[in-house]
Structure formats: C-alpha cells, structure tokens
Amino acid sequence: MFLWLPAVLSALPNIVHVVVDDLGWAELGIHRSGAALNDTSTPFLDKSLATESLLLERMYTHKICSPTRCALQSGRAPIHVNVQNVLPEVHNPKDPIGGYQGIPLGMTGMASRLRPTHSTHMVGKWDAGMATPEHSPSARGYESWLGYWHHANDYWNLEQESCNGHPVRDLWRSNATFGGPAKDLQNPPECSQSNQSAGCVYEEILLTLEVTRVIKERETGPTARPFFLFWAMHLVHMPLEVPFRYLQKFNFIDDTYRRSMHAMVNYVDNQLDTIVTLLKSEGVWNSTLMVVHSDNGGEIMVAGVCGGNNYPLRGGKFSNWEGELS
Predict the structure, then answer these.
(1) Of 119, 272, 274, 320, which sees the most CB atoms within 10 A?
(2) DSSP state for residue 39 in the 8-state scheme
(3) Maximum Cα interatomic distance, the chain, rounded to a whole number of Å
C-alpha cells in the first residue's frame, strides 16, 4: 500500500482512495532487482515512493475481489460481511437482510459516515451488491458514481454476461438527477481488443475522465466540503486488454500474457501520474490524503494466462499464501 499524507492539515483533508484490481507484488519496479528491472513498468510509482510517500509492505487483504471491497466499504473484516465471490444476482430468499451478494443491508458504508463532512464520489468497480436499490453505491452514501457492478467487464464493449441471449453492457451512472445505464458512453459494438478504430474508447479512459471531473468540479467557497473519492480501477483485472500503443512499449517481452500485463500496469502508472499532477495543478495536493493499494494479489492461475506475477511471494489470487494477500 502507498500512502501520501497531506503536507498541511489545518482542516479535514480531501481523500482519494485508489484500489488497483489484481495487482501482483512483482509488477512494481521497487519489488524488482537486477535484470528484472529492464522491463519495469511503473516509473511514476517507483519515483514517488522513493521521494513523497509511505510504503506499507505488510498490508493484507482478502484473497478475492468482492470480500475485500465489501470490507473496505463497511469497515468490517470480510468474515463479518462477505467471504464469497459469487455473482451479484445470487440471492437466498430465506435471509432478507444478509441473503444477497455483497454488504448486508443493515451495515453502514464509509461514504455514509463521511457524507456529513465530505462530498462523496465513486468511480469504477462496485462488486459489493446490486440485488436491490438499497445495495447500490448511491444507497451506501455516494453522491455520484460511474462504474460497473460485476467482477469485471470487457474494456471495449463493456459486456458482462447476458440476459435472454442478449449481451449486457455493464457501465452505469448515478447522481442527483440520474440513475441508470451510461448509454452515452458505450462504444460501437464492433469495438474490441483487436479493433481499436476511431470512436473506440478504452474503459479506463472513461473512468479517469470521471475522476478528473470530480476533482475539477469539487465544492468551493467558505462552506465547501472536502471531497472523498473512491477510485476502483478495472485494471489490471482480466480480460488482458489495453490500447495498442501501450502494448508496443513491451514488444521485447515474448510471453503474450506477460506483455499484456506489463502494458496494463504501465497504464495504471500513467493514470496515477495524471491524477496526482492534476491534484497539484488544482492546488489541493497538499491538503489531500491519497491511498493506493490492490484488492488482492496477482492472478497466476491456468498456466499463466492471467499474466500475474507475485515473485518471490508464494501463491496468488484465490490462495491463502502471501502472494495473494499483500
């Protein structure tokens, strides 16, 4: 976990909480040495960690996505909230309170607790319940949200599962005046990893633009609240998809899956650089607490097709070894 502390704390700080999805231990240059440094893909984080932030090397999470996110949102250990990574529509009708995937209805979220003192915004992956409106980010205290419900979706066509044979595009928006699918942000259906033609927008671009909007449109004036922004990236979760220009940086890596992972991690690094630069240019960096961490370790299952790397730690996502938990 990386932690940037406010330089000046005369009032409540802004808070930017970033969760990178499935980031492996060995994806960061600071965890590499020797020849392995030649393909490092995190120059911004490596430099910032050395000069500006605190690095917590023993920060432990749950082994899979949804339990970690439910724990973060509720402030409770996963065993008391949700320890399963089932699909968000799963329902046990015998339990009207906790019988849904995600956070039980009776639990308060951190955005609800912060809302009296902060404006509250979320961008990206929710994965903490969607069975009823009361399970949504807006019901959990977020004044705005742009993101998706499921464990993942396609980075280009936004599809995740289907309904009556029709693909479902999982990108939603909620705010004070609207709540529903973000149809205006959908790509043409032919967009894909192999077809990145004009008019095809990478999902992570949409999310970063929303992060930018939240920061630029923050409250101002004598009664303005600081902002709380929870930014849950899609990257670097499967599928292994990334703009071609990032893949081309790593053409020297023979393994297709590792090449894609390096490109995706490099994209994460660039986006974090962009937002930190924005916070500084907007004059709010010195009054902002920023936290960056992964939800679990890198995914190393299925003979490496997921592209993850947690070396020298043992195991990965879905396991109980340290390569998964840190």
Answers:
(1) 272
(2) G
(3) 57
> pLDDT in tens for each of the 326 residues of the chain?
778 877 666 689 999 999 999 999 989 988 887 666 667 789 999 888 767 888 888 888 888 889 999 999 999 999 998 888 887 778 888 888 888 889 998 899 999 999 999 999 999 999 999 988 999 999 999 999 999 999 999 999 999 988 888 889 999 999 999 999 999 999 999 999 999 999 999 999 999 999 999 999 999 999 999 999 999 999 999 999 999 999 999 999 999 999 999 999 999 999 999 999 999 999 999 999 999 999 988 888 777 789 998 888 888 887 888 876 65
Give the three-class secondary structure for 173.
strand
Amino acid code (one letter) for 244: F
Q: How far apart are CA 267 and CA 274, in angstroms?
A: 10
Distances (CA, A) of 27 to 57, 78, 245, 301: 14, 26, 19, 16
Supply the DSSP string of 263-301, one letter for each residue. Answer: HHHHHHHHHHHHHHHHHHHTT-GGGEEEEEEESS----T
51 three-class SS: helix
Alpha-carbon gap, residue 5 to 150, rounded angstroms: 32
Question: Judging by beta carbons within 10 Å of its beta carbon (0-12, 13-18, 19+), is residue 179 exposed, middle or buried?
Answer: middle
Q: Measure the CA–CA gap between 323 and 288, rounded to whole angstroms.
A: 30
pTM value is 0.94
Amino acid at 317: K
Instruction: Give the C-alpha separation, 40 to 46, whole Å.
Output: 10
